[in-house]
């Protein structure tokens, strides 16, 4: 049997699970997340899925890593804040969970931070030691690598709160409690409220959509729906403003855009690049804005890399 590492990328709507060997995801499973049921219940499902992957691939587990959508203390392996999701997570001993399940070493950190490590070591940022990653999904996560060092900070929140940089000081209230965050205008969780509050909602094909997410917005915009075009534009401009702030804050050579919306990279990347570059103060040269090369594998590879190499 071969020895593999398990990477678990726990998102707000999906959980990506992968078996990794030699920096490659050799098998994976994508399942629905149920944060309202609590993390403890979800971990049982995750354990079963990992066991199934191991059995199907004749593999032995050598370690497990968890990329979590919240503030994480990777030293004590504790969740510090969950932003009201996975409400029981702060009380759980996740290292004990992994030991009980497989008797293996365990590591955990913030999901966006782990996506940045994935892109830095295996993806679109392999050629630099100065990069920022923005992951667009249920929320907006960010992380920074500066001079070859992953930014964590004394309280483990450095770099990862770029989705909560304000781009409109008198704007919408964000889930975090702040006003006018990037996330309040350009993440999946905010879309339904924005769409339904529009006077154009009743006449829009979005009113017939069962669930409004980025794919629905981009499809409807492509079909000429007026409201969808407006919301798509708002998202693109919000992401662009966020990237400008990140460049000014962290001085990267490369910015990587990730998350499910980058399945539409042909629509997102050129616009953000053209919007950002004229507005950033970079006398040294030109920041490269790139699409993820890893998509849903970024967090899986990142957390396994940190587990193996003690990043």
Cα-to-Cα separation, first versus last residue = 27 Å
* Radius of gyration of CA atoms, rounded to a whole number: 19 Å
Helix-strand pattern:
EEEHEEEHEHEEEHHHHEHEH
CATH topology assignment of the largest domain? Nucleotidyltransferase, domain 5
Structural class: alpha/beta
Strand order across the largest sheet: 3-2-1-4-7
Uncertain segments are none
Q: Counting H and I runs of at least 4 residues, what is the number of helices?
A: 9
Relative strand content = 15-25%
Characterize the biggest β-sheet.
5 strands, mixed
Care to describe what's here?
The chain is α/β, with parallel strands linked by helices and 311 residues long. It folds into two domains: 2-115 and 297-309, Nucleotidyltransferase, domain 5; 126-293, ATPase, nucleotide binding domain (Nucleotidyltransferase, domain 5), CATH 3.30.420. The protein is built from nine helices and twelve strands. The strands form three sheets. A five-stranded mixed sheet has the order 3-2-1-4-7, with helices on both faces. The chain has a five-stranded mixed sheet with strand order 10-9-8-11-12, with helices on both faces. A two-stranded antiparallel sheet has the order 5-6. The two termini are 27 Å apart.
């Amino acid at each position: 049997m071969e020895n593999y590492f398990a990477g678990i990328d726990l998102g707000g709507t999906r959980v990506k699970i992968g078996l990794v060997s030699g920096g490659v995801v050799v098998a994976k499973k994508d399942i629905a997340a149920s944060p309202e049921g609590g993390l403890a219940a979800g971990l049982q499902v995750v354990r079963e899925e990992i066991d199934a992957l191991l059995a199907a691939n004749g593999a032995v587990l050598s370690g497990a890593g968890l990329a979590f959508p919240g503030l994480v203390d990777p030293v004590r392996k504790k969740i510090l804040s969950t932003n009201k999701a996975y409400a029981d997570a702060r009380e759980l001993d996740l290292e004990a969970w992994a030991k009980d399940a497989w008797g293996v070493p365990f590591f955990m950190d913030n999901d966006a931070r782990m996506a940045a490590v994935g892109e830095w070591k295996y993806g679109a940022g392999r050629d630099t030691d100065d990069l920022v990653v923005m992951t667009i999904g249920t929320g907006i996560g960010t992380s920074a690598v500066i001079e070859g060092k992953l930014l964590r900070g004394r309280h483990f929140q450095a770099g990862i709160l770029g989705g909560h940089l304000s781009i409109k000081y008198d704007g919408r209230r964000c889930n975090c409690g702040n006003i006018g965050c990037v996330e309040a205008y350009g993440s999946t969780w905010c879309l339904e409220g924005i769409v339904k509050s529009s006077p154009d909602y009743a006449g829009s094909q979005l009113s017939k959509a069962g669930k409004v997410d980025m794919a629905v917005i981009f499809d409807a915009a492509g079909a000429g729906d007026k409201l969808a075009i407006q919301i798509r534009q708002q998202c693109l401009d919000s992401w662009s403003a966020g990237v400008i702030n990140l460049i000014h804050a962290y001085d990267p050579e490369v910015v990587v855009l990730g998350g499910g919306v980058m399945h539409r990279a042909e629509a997102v990347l050129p616009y953000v690049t053209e919007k950002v570059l004229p507005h950033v103060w970079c006398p040294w040269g030109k920041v490269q804005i790139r699409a993820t090369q890893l998509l849903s594998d970024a967090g899986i590879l990142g957390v396994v890399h940190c587990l193996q190499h003690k990043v």
